[in-house]
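The freezer alarm interrupted the setup, so I double-checked each line after restarting. Inputs confirmed:
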Amino acid sequence: MTLQIELKNINKAFDDHPVLVDLNLGIEEDEFLTLLGPSGCGKTTILRLIGGFETPDSGSIIFEGRDITHLPPYLRPVNTLFQQYALFPHLNVYENIAFGLRIKKIQEAEIKKRVGEMLNLVNLRGFDKRRVESLSGGQQQRIAMARALVNRPEVLLLDEPLGALDLKLRKDMQVELKRIQQETGITFIFVTHDQEEALTLSDRIVVLNEGVIQQIGTPIGIYNEPSNAYVADFVGESNIIEGVMHRDYDVTFSNHRFVCVDVGFKTDEKVDVVIRPEDVEIVSPQEGMLTGRVLSCLFLGVHYEMRIDTGNEVYLAHSTIARDVGDTVGIRVIPDNIHVMRKG
Amino acid sequence: MKHFKNLSAPYVVWALIFIVVSLFMVIFYAFTGETGQFTTQHFVRFFSGSTLGTLFQSLKIALISTVICLIIGYPLAYIIAMSTSGRYRATAIMLIVIPMWMNFLLRTYAWVTILSKNGILNSLLRMVGLGPLDILYTDWAVVLGMVYNFLPFMILPIYTVLEKMDQGLIEAAADLGCNKVLTFVKVIFPLSLPGVVSGVAMVFIPAISTFEITALLGGNKTNLIGNVIEQQFTVTGDWHYGSAISVVLMLFLLVSLFFTDREERDKVHASASDMVDTHQDVAFPETNQQEVHYD
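Predicted 3D structure, all chains:
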């Protein structure tokens, strides 16, 4: 893996409101990198900086060793898949895809060949002469993708491209996206606020909050080892409980002393304990480390989601076995599934 | 909505009397003689006489005015629409609209004093040793009056289209390799054509039929079709001939609107034919490929 794009000490503010604060990020060649965060976290701004639609207030953007911070969009070897597709309404499908090639004065025969390849790639053969307004959202999405990829960019920027699609179509397009990325070997930088989408698609995920990177890692790494309570809460559902870390492998929360696998805290340091709902085992009251009363039980398809009140906290638990509301149950968590995090 | 149907009655009556009935009266007069018998003699007279030449002269002057309005109006509309400050845009549009609040004749009279032999313009020209020039009572004074009066009608529809244009499309063009000039040629201008078409229609129609501007700024030297019609009603008293010329002018406008409008209707046809997948060759306009950097 070689470093392709480097964002160095980027600061960006809109109307004196800081959006990105001293941001450093390296993007590797051919990876599927996702910028994940809530709206307003600065993820789209990062994409627009790389695309050339914004310039940073300070810092620099290096592309394969070359400083492109002040290069206009049309001179950058990147293409963008816009959130609202931005297809040209006065051109048909063929001309939309051919647009970038015509600007580059490519030979007509070559254009024809490459547009054909793209229509194949996005599974829209025979749509050449259609007007873009006559296409469905999913089809417009694919045309936008073809229009960007036909230029053979080194990097494709995707700004929440699936946001406007319904759930079924979104799932299909996710598979498509991943397939196209693997077939073309182009670096994808993907922006989304949907953590599930990020986990499904990415090689690496960058979790952002208020313009600051919270964690960078593989989907599995981020899900299993969130570096702080924010990431744990944003990526997947979590129980976040206040606790006290007495010494290595020894933590108290919900008035119970647990064995855990975490080390390196100060004596009796106040910590956040993160437990995933699927790691909360529901057992009989006698077997439980904690006991609580079932507040609610919702059927979610694959599993039931239960809220269990232990008196101090309400735990979220996922289980394939339903319990009656009002029942007293026991809760067990094995040491591996207790994630202790520093406050802050 | 049915509830409100009755409320439209006054408008229907109004439209019937002042549009449909008066239109039929004009057509009736055009095809009848002194005693009310059917005749086509007025049309024969029109197409064999000198009035036909006047129609072409009017056409020429209206076309020149429309083209000048477009040349001035489009860049102005573009500059205003591309401003990021909403306040600036509102102020600029206000400044364009405000003169229209003043009486049309009054505004045109003002040009008489500016352009006349001892007017403001000639006084200035004399001071720099260029004048005096005969400007008033020429075709160019008429063109000036038309451009001055009708320019807002060109600017406003173009501005409306440009202002509503999706910024995403402009960014997409830049993303796909267009510099500012190419973005304009390939995306902005083609998408603003509907505004250009309505602007052209809104300038051309009053320009070809006006008689006030010609009367005030053209004196008796420039005689356009509007003036000929007016004279038939107010001076000669030949309502039948006047109506006949009006009918010809109306048909003429209908035909020219049909052509300017075709662009728009072609789009509708094209999208209909998309469904059956016709093979139309798409000609792509040649553009000059000079590198223009924007910063």
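Quick read of the result. The domain at 3-229 of chain A is CATH 3.40.50.300 (Rossmann fold).
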